[in-house]
Amino acid sequence: MPLNSHAQCSSFALALLGTSCAFAQDKPLNIVYIMCDDHSYQTISAYGSTVNHTPNIDRLAQRGVRFTNSFVANSLSGPSRACMLTGKHSHANGFTDNTKRFDGNQQTFPKLLRQAGYQTAMIGKWHLVSQPTGFDYWDILTGQGDYYNPTFICNGQHLQRHGYSTNIVTDLALDWLTNKRDPQKPFCLFIHHKAPHRTWMPDLQDLELFSDSTYELPDNFYDDYSGRRAAQEQRMTIARDMDLVYDLKMADRDSTIHSYDTTLEHWGRAMYTLRMDSAQQAAWDAHYQPIIADFKQKFGNGQLDKDDPQFSTRKSQLNNWKFQQYMRDYLRVIHSVDRNVGRVLDYLEQNNLLENTLIVYTSDQGFYMGEHGWFDKRFMYEESFRTPLIMSLPAAYGGKQGVTSSAMVQNIDYAPTFLQATGTPIPSDIQGVSLLCELQAKDQTGLKSCVRHHANQLKKRNLYYHYYEYPDEHRVNRHFGIRTPRYSLMRFYGDVNQWELYDLKHDPQNMHNLYGQPGKQSLIRRLKKKLQELQKKYDDPIRHQITD
Predict the structure, then answer these.
(1) What confidence tens digit (pLDDT) does each residue in 60-98 have?
(2) Do the strands 389-392 and 65-67 form a parallel or antiparallel pair, or are they unpaired?
(3) How many angstroms separate the Cα of 122 from the Cα of each of 108, 125, 152, 276, 315?
(4) pLDDT tens string 175-195
(5) Taking every pair of C-alpha atoms in the chain, what is the biggest distance, in angstroms?
(6) Which sequence spans correspond to the domains of the chain?
(7) CA-CA distances (angstroms) from residue 120 to 32, 349, 374, 424, 457?
(8) Distance of alpha carbon 476 from alpha carbon 467, whole angstroms
(9) Domain 11-199+330-459 CATH (choose: 3.10.490.10, 3.90.1150.10, 3.40.720.10, 2.60.40.1220)
């Protein structure tokens, strides 16, 4: 088995440096990989959040490396997960959008770890349609999963479990660690939560959190999307598209509040009644029914009269109400996530597993918390393109503690990082690069040169992005692009054909499209050349179809 005492750098680093990254290894390294769905970096206090406190995620950041330039390859749940599993972009792994089915026959890093003698377990949200492969044990939520009393598929058997999803997934993970694994073998454990995916249903114990909190609207909440046609055509605004019944829990008993979409209304009313037992329903109603009554008093059924002289003011008030309700529920869900991260860290510490376990916390993509007036993800704009990433490598393996990395990293890099960290060979067809040298201390024997040069290369790295799912419910047009340390160039295609260019040093919120403006021609040519080089490097077929 390749559980050797010296792991070498990825082929990327070797090609650059002609050297190796060595570290002392007394025990085989375990991996605990915690991932949420739609967790925005803006709501993690370790990332400077001013609206939320996440002490346990912060605790992990204090033990390891917090990446400040962490991105995804395709900002959508299923495709992002496929990129992570394979270390390849969407076109290479075949799962380009959520209408596809993941080909479980292909190479994934859990399969490679399993071949190397690791036990592998997948617990929680899978969302790849096909059943998991490459795992000794799997216990997954069906589809998107439910927050309350969810149904799981445990190694092929359907089981409904009572309770709250985030707690249940953690319970199952800790049970696997305690009772189901072979303690004589190293392991790789996936703990993948549904939370905080839409519709942001909090744990009952967290329902009253933040009830007295008020949040400022983002500066660009009323973005007019000038110069950005694809942004004009999306359907993910809080003001227009966030649903009162489905998203904001206004499922009143007399059904006077209606959704703009009857299907969403049906789903919403079912979620808030059919999944819960009587005790859960009573606690839920005790919280939300007064909010519903207050809403009706202020806004009636939510349908404002455009002929009302106060229409503009009333509309702004309603928009602000929707934003506040969204933020409170979302942050309540994150509170449960953070609490359960703490449970995992406590278990690892109490069972002497911290000393030889790489712990990872991330999300399948970022999320909009009202920026541009939006919720959801999909765009290559910063808030959804970025994702939180914290990796804690034990000190015995040369791991840094309490530091940040500005390296340009992407979720296709997780697979080669996990492989290299465990001494497992990295196949040549993996498109990501290992981040192991970013995790290791510079004063570790034999590491200084590798860490310094490898880090410099990662900081200068250019990243490739490609989003495919259109029109779906949010109508975000297909697009691809390049992200350099300073610039973001993207090409929308299909119903909207437009280039967009942003100087992120001066415009980090992607507000001012510079494409075609005087004086930018030389920059655009350089960026297009780099983009074409990436498309050629990753062999994306789109390069033969769109060449302008």
Answers:
(1) 999 999 999 999 999 999 999 999 999 999 999 999 999
(2) antiparallel
(3) 13, 9, 12, 26, 45
(4) 999 999 999 999 999 999 999
(5) 75
(6) 11-199+330-459, 239-328, 463-544
(7) 10, 20, 37, 14, 32
(8) 9
(9) 3.40.720.10
